[in-house]
Amino acid sequence: MHIIILAMLLPLLAAAGLALTVYSGRAENIHVKIPRLELDAKIDGNLSEPAWQQAALLNGFSQFSPQDGIPAADSTQVLVWYSRTAIHFGIRAYEAHGAAHASQADRDKIYADDNVQLFLGTFHDRRQATVFGVNPFGVQLDGTMVERGQVVSNGWNGSVAARGNPDLNQDFVFESKGHLTDYGFEVEIRIPFRSLNYQAADIQDWDLNIIRAVQHSGSEDSWVPAKRSSPSFLGQSGSLDGMHDMSRGLLVVVVNPVVTQKLVGAPTTNGWGYAHSTPQLGTTARWGITNNLTLSGTAHPDFAEVESDAGKILLDPRQALFYPEKRPFFLDGAEQFAVPSGLIYTRRIVQPEGAIKLSGKAAGMSIGLMAAVDNALPTATVQDRARFGILRIQRDLGAQSRIGVALTDRELPGDMNRVADVDGRILLGGPYSAQFQYASSWTRRGTTELDGSLYGLVFNNSGKNFGARYSFTGTSPDFRTTSGFISRGGTTNAVADQHYTWYKERGSLLDNIALDVQGSDTWVSANLSHHGDAIEKKLHFSVSSTLRGGWGLGGGVYWETFGFDPALYSKYRIQRTVGTRIDTVAFDASPRIFNRDYVLTFNTPTFARFNASAVYIGGQDENFFEWAQADIHYLSAQVSVRPTDKIRVDGTYDYQDYYRKTDGTIVGKTLIPRLKVEYQLTRSMFLRVVGEEDISANDDLRDESRTQQPLLVNGKLASASKTDSFHGDFLFSYTPTPGTVLFLGYGGDALNTPDIRNRFLSTPLIRSSDHFFVKYSYLFHL
User: Fold this and answer.
1) Are 493 and 522 in contact (CB under 8 A)?
2) Reduced to 3 states, what is the DSSP secondary structure of residue 37?
3) Distance separating alpha carbons of residues 677 and 101, to the nearest angstrom
4) Three-state SS for 383?
5) Cα–Cα distance measured from residue 484 to residue 481, given in angstroms and rounded to the nearest whole number
6) Distance CA 591, CA 566 (A)
7) Residue 273 φ then ψ, to 5°
8) CB–CB of 452/474 below 8 Å?
C-alpha cells in the first residue's frame, strides 16, 4: 500500500517542482546524488519540513541475513540531504507484522529493538566506516567498523559467512528523534560534519550502506544488495556523490575537563572507616588539524570504570584472559591502532599521567601515533615511570587490499621492549582473500636479552554455501610484547576450518542449517623445528541451524588430545611415603589426555520483552588441577528481560565443574552469577545496579592419573581451597551528550571466610571494602 501511495504522490510533487529522486538498491541504483539545501529542519522525528520533500529517496532493500539475495519482507525508505554543516537522514520503516520493538534504552543498547544503522565511509575507501544507528524512538548507537573479512566465528558452532560487528566503544555527537506510527516507525537524524573526519577535497564522495534489523523475523535488510559470499561487506557499499561546500567550522577544538572525587571505605580497629582523597582533575583535548587528521592529548585523566569487568571462567590456565579497553581517550580513533594478533593493547598503559596521539587518514594511508607516560606504581619516581611509544601506519592497495606496519616501544630503566610488525590483507578475487603478518621483538630485562618473532598466514574462502579458513600462526619462545596482548606465547597453531550452509525458501520452518568441520594442531614452538609432536590435537564437528523467526539450535562433538606441558607443572611435586620416610619426586604425569566433549547451543528470538541463549558442554575433558581426564559440565546462560520500555534486566550464569574419573569425587567447581538492572529515567538519565558473585573451590590435589599420592605446589601440600567474593555497583548517570556526564556511584566488595567443610557450598559473605565516587565532565566545542 505504501508503494502505491508513494507512486501517487510523486506526480503531485513533480508538479510542485519538488520531485524526489529515487535510488533503488535492488535495481543497483546505488550511486546517490543528494541535494545540498540552504534549509534547516527541526529534529523532532517528523519528516514534514520542506527540506524532506526535496531529499533523495533510497528504497528497494534486500535481505542480507539469514539469507541474502531475496527482496526484503518489510519495506524501508531513507531520505537524504545535506546542508553546509550537516548531513540529514529521514527513515520511514514499514512493519506490517505488528508493532516494532522499541525501548527507552541507554546509548548503544538497542540491539534488542528494531533499528536502522547507517554505514558512512567518509574516506571513500570501502575499508572503514563510521556507524550511526537508531531505534524507533531515536535512541542512538554509534561506533566504527574496519573491514576484516566476512568469515567470522560463530562461537561454539564453528564459523559462518557474516559481516563483522562494529566497535561501539567510540561515541559521536549527533541528533536523532523518532516515534512509532501506525505503519511502523519514523526517525529523523542530523549528523554534523564536525563530528566526522573526512577527505581533504573540495568534492566529496562517501561510501554508504544502510542495514535495518527486523526483530519479529530475526532478519537483517540491506539497501545495497550485499552478498555474504563477498570477502568484504564494506567493499559492497554504494556512495553519496558530489558533495561540496561543506564546513566543519573554522577551528574544530574539543576540550573535556574531568573532575573526580572518591571516598574509600575499609575495616579499621574502630569498625568501618572512610579515607577522603583529594579531588582529581584531568583534561582531554582534541584538535581537528584538518578534515582527516586529529591531534588529542590528555593530562592526569580519570580512567576509573563506572562498571567493573564481568567475571570470566578461565577454561585453560595456559591462556590469559582478555578484557577490552573501556577508557574514552584510548577508544577515540582506536580503529587506526588495530593490529592483528593484538600487538597494540592500550590497557598495558595502566595509569597514564599524560598521553598524546595523532590519528586519521591522509594520502591513502591510515595513521596512528601515540606517546604516553605510565605511573603504574604511585610510589615510582619520575625516572621509574614507563614510557610508551606506538606507531601504526596502513596503506591502501588496489580496491580492497592493504598493507600495514606497526612499531611499539616500552621503556623503563633497565627494562626495554620493542616490537616491529608488518602485516597485510590481500583480496585474491571472488570470495578468496589472504592475510599475512610477521613481527620481531627485542627485549632487555637487566642483563637478559631476548629476540623473538611472531608469524601468521591465513587463507579465507568466504563463499555463501561453502567457506573455509586455513591458518598457520604462532610465536617463537622468546617473543615478548609489553605493549600488546598475547594470550599464550611460545606456541604455533595450524587450523583448517571448513563450513557448508544450506539455505531454505523463505517461509520454511528452517531458514538455514550449517555444518562446520575444524581440525587444529598446536605445537610448542621450540619443538616445531625438531619435528616434535603437537601438544594439542583437535577435531571439532559442529552443526547449527536458524529456524523461522530467529530461533537457533546447535550441537557438536569435539575430539581432542592434550599433551603434558612440563612448564605449566614446573612447581609441582608428588609426596610419597617409603616405609616411615616421606619424600617427594618430580611430577611426571600421563603424557597425553584424550577428551570427547558434547556441545549444545540454544537461543530464542529477540522478543519484545525477552530473549535468552545458552551453551552447555558435557563429556570428558582435561582436569588441569591434577593433569588427568575428568567428567565435566560447563554452562553459560544469558537472559534479558524488558518488562517495560524503560526497564532492562540482564542476567548471566557461568558454571563449570570437574569430577574425577577414578572415584567420581569433585575436584573443582566455579560459579559466576551476575545480574544487572537498568532503569532509564529519561533518554539521557538512568539508574543501574550490578551484582556479581564469584565462587571457586577445589579439593585436595593428588596424582590422579597414576599413584593417587598428594601433590605439592611451591613446596606446600595443595590442600583444598575456596574463594568466594561478591561485587556490587550502583550508578546514577546523566549524559546529555557524549563527553558531558555526571556519574554518582557506589561500589562494594564482600569476601567469605573459607570453611574446608563447606568448600563447595556458599558461605556467609563479609563486607571487605567499598567506595563512593562522583565524576563530572563537560565537553566544550571551540
Assistant:
1) yes
2) coil
3) 19
4) helix
5) 5
6) 10
7) -135, 155
8) no
Neighbouring CB atoms inside 10 A of 726's CB total: 19
* Beta bridge partner(s), residue 469: 460, 497
Residues recorded for the chain: 782
Residues forming a β-bridge with 392: 368, 406
pLDDT confidence of residue 754:
60
Work out the pLDDT band at 9, boundaries 50, 70, 90.
Answer: very low
Amino acid at 158: G
pLDDT at site 289: 84
pLDDT on residue 8: 44
- List the one residue out of 60, 72, 69 whose CA is nearest residue 219: 72
Which of the four pLDDT bands, split at 50, 70 and 90, describes residue 307?
A: low
pLDDT score for 268: 86
pLDDT at 756 exceeding the cut of 80: no
- Which position has the grid cell 570453611? 755
Q: Which three cell numbers stand for residue 728?
A: 556490587
* 217's grid cell: 523475523
- β-bridge mates for residue 552, sequence order: 546, 603
Contact 300, 329 (CB under 8 A): no
Distance, CA of 428 to CA of 400 (rounded, Å)? 10
- Listed in order, strand segments (DSSP E) in 642-720 are 647-660, 666-682, 685-698, 711-713, 716-717
As a whole number, mean pLDDT of residues 188-214 equals 93
Average pLDDT over residues 406-420: 94
First-to-last alpha carbon distance for the chain, in angstroms, is: 48
Q: For 475-490, give the DSSP string.
A: E-TT---SSS--SS-S
Q: Which residues pair with 126 in a beta bridge?
A: none
Q: For position 609, what pLDDT does the model report?
A: 93
pLDDT, tens only, 144-164:
998 876 656 666 666 666 777
Query: Would you state the pLDDT for residue 755?
Result: 56
Place of cell 543498547: 109
How far is it, in rounded angstroms, from Cα 560 to Cα 519? 10
Cα(460)–Cα(136) distance, integer angstroms: 37
Tell me the sheet residues that pair with 113.
Answer: none
Amino acid at 712: L
> Residue 104 pLDDT > 50, yes or no?
yes
Phi then psi for residue 326, to 5 deg, are -130, -5
Residue 66 has pLDDT above 80, yes or no: yes
Q: Has residue 4 got a pLDDT over 50?
A: no
| Distance, CA of 500 to CA of 515 (rounded, Å) | 5
Question: Torsion over CA of 698, 699, 703 and 704, rounded to 10 degrees?
Answer: -90
Q: Are strands 62-65 and 56-59 parallel, antiparallel or unpaired?
A: unpaired
How does pLDDT run across 655-672, given as a tens digit for each residue?
A: 999 999 999 999 999 999
Half-sphere exposure of 146 (CA within 13 A, CB side): 15
pLDDT exceeds 90 at position 244: yes
Phi, then psi, of 89 in degrees rounded to 5: -125, 135
Q: Please, where are the H alpha helices in 265-410?
A: 328-331
Q: Which residues contact 319 (CB under 8 A, 6 or more apart)?
A: 487, 488
Q: Return the pLDDT at 390.
A: 97
Rounded CA separation 756/186 (Å): 61
Q: Is residue 730 a contact partner of residue 682, using CB atoms and an 8 Å limit?
A: no
CA distances from 319 to 314, 316, 762 (A): 8, 6, 28
377 phi and psi angles, rounded to 5 deg: -110, 110
Sign of CA dihedral 377, 382, 386, 389: positive
Can you name the residues that pair with 329 across neighbouring β-strands? none
Q: How far apart are CA 420 and CA 389, in angstroms?
A: 12
Position 246 pLDDT exceeds 50: yes
Q: Within 10 A of 79 (CB to CB), how many other CB atoms are there? A: 22
Among residues 597, 599, 595, the alpha carbon closest in space to that of 542 is found at 599
- Amino acid of residue 326: K
Confidence grade of residue 533 (pLDDT, cut at 50, 70, 90): confident
Name the strand (E) or helix (H) holding 4: helix 2-15
How many angstroms separate the CA atoms of 560 and 521, rounded?
Answer: 10
